[in-house]
C-alpha cells in the first residue's frame, strides 16, 4: 500500500493576482495546484541556501527570503514578492511573516519528526533565530523567528512526530 498523501491548502498573492494553492505530497514528490493548473514538483529544501525544484520535468533553483512579511522568491533572474495567507503559516524553511507588532505562531506546515528544538519558554529571540528543525520527507526544514520577542510556548520536543497544523512554538513581541 502507498503512502497516505499529505494535503495543504492556502492562498498566495503575487502582485495583483491571488491564487488558491493546494499541495499534495505523494511518496516524496508533490502535486501542486496553482489556480486551476496542476504541476508535478520535486523540491529539495536544505536548511540554508537555494531551493532546487523540478517542475514538470524542468529544473529550477530558487532563492527564498522574507522581507516585510512577504516571501521574496528569485527564480530564473526574476524576483517575485509573494504573500502567503493562512493564519500562523510558515513558508518553506521557516519563511513567512507576521504583521508588524504581531507575534509569531509557528505551525507545522506538514507532518514530520522534530529533530531539534533550539528554544525554551522564556527565551528571548531576535528575527532569524533558529527555533525548531522538522524532518519531513527525508529533508530537514529549519524554522526561524520572524519577530523579536520572548518564547511564550514550546509545543514540541525532540523526537516527537507532528501533523500538519500542529503548534510548534509561540513567540510574543517584546513588551507584549
Question: Can you offer a commentary on this structure?
Answer:
By secondary structure, this protein is mainly beta. The chain has a single domain (6-173), classed as OB fold (Dihydrolipoamide Acetyltransferase, E2P) (Beta Barrel). It is built from no helices and 16 strands. The chain has strands spanning 6-14, 17-26, 29-34, 37-44, 51-55, 58-67, 70-75, 78-85, 104-107, 112-117, 124-125, 130-136, 139-144, 149-154, 161-162, 167-173. The strands form three sheets. An eight-stranded antiparallel beta barrel has the order 1-2-3-4-5-6-7-8. Strands 9-16-14-11 form a four-stranded antiparallel beta sheet, with no helix packed on it. A four-stranded antiparallel beta sheet has the order 13-12-10-15, with no helix packed on it. Strand 4 (37-44) and strand 5 (51-55) form a beta hairpin.
Could you write a compact summary of the structure shown?
The chain is an all-beta fold and 176 residues long.
Layout: helices, strands, pairs:
Elements: E1 6-14, E2 17-26, E3 29-34, E4 37-44, E5 51-55, E6 58-67, E7 70-75, E8 78-85, E9 104-107, E10 112-117, E11 124-125, E12 130-136, E13 139-144, E14 149-154, E15 161-162, E16 167-173
Antiparallel strand pairs: 1-2, 1-8, 2-3, 3-4, 4-5, 5-6, 6-7, 7-8, 9-16, 10-12, 10-15, 11-14, 12-13, 14-16
Amino acid at each position: 500500500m502507498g503512502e497516505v498523501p499529505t494535503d495543504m491548502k492556502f492562498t498566495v498573492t503575487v502582485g495583483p493576482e491571488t491564487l488558491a494553492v493546494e499541495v499534495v505530497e505523494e511518496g516524496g514528490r508533490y502535486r501542486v495546484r496553482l489556480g486551476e493548473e496542476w504541476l508535478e514538483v520535486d523540491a529539495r529544501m536544505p536548511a540554508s541556501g537555494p531551493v532546487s525544484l523540478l517542475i514538470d520535468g524542468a529544473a529550477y533553483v530558487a532563492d527564498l527570503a522574507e522581507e516585510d512579511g512577504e516571501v521574496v522568491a528569485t527564480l530564473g533572474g526574476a524576483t517575485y514578492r509573494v504573500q502567503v495567507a493562512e493564519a500562523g503559516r510558515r513558508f518553506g524553511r521557516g519563511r513567512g511573516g507576521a504583521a508588524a507588532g504581531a507575534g509569531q505562531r509557528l505551525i507545522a506546515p506538514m507532518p514530520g519528526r522534530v529533530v531539534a528544538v533550539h528554544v525554551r519558554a522564556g527565551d528571548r529571540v531576535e528575527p532569524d533565530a533558529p527555533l525548531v528543525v522538522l524532518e519531513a520527507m527525508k529533508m530537514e526544514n529549519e524554522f526561524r523567528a520572524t519577530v523579536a520577542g520572548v518564547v511564550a510556548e514550546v509545543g514540541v520536543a525532540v523526537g516527537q512526530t507532528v501533523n500538519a497544523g500542529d503548534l510548534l512554538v509561540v513567540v510574543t513581541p517584546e513588551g507584549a
